[in-house]
Amino acid sequence: MYHDMDLATTKKSVKKALNKLGESTLRKWLILKLADRKDHIGFSEEEICGDLNQIREIIDNIIATKDCFTIKDLSVNGNDLINIGFKPGIELGNVLSQLLQMVIDGGENNKDTLLAIAASLKFNEDGN
What we know:
Helix content: 55-70%
Mean pLDDT: 89
């Protein structure tokens, strides 16, 4: 399904892939890509494995440092957002998704920071 997926060797790209596929599927994708590349004659080991090894190292680092790449990894949860005025439902899920995207893009996964961002999103939405 994701055989032809290209993945940049950046932490942001790998976090997005981890979020979309999960760790197990992404690691299987790496094995598949490596096997596919080894089937092509005339490439050096570095050409075959270089970027895939970098991706593997980035995955290992993200997992080892418990970096945030899913909503459940966020420093805030739905209850936190309900406590600042959000109603359960789609709006709440959308805000959590926005916060996750901000963290994946390099923002800080800090509860106070994320609550302040969520509050500003709520303020802008309510027009107050």
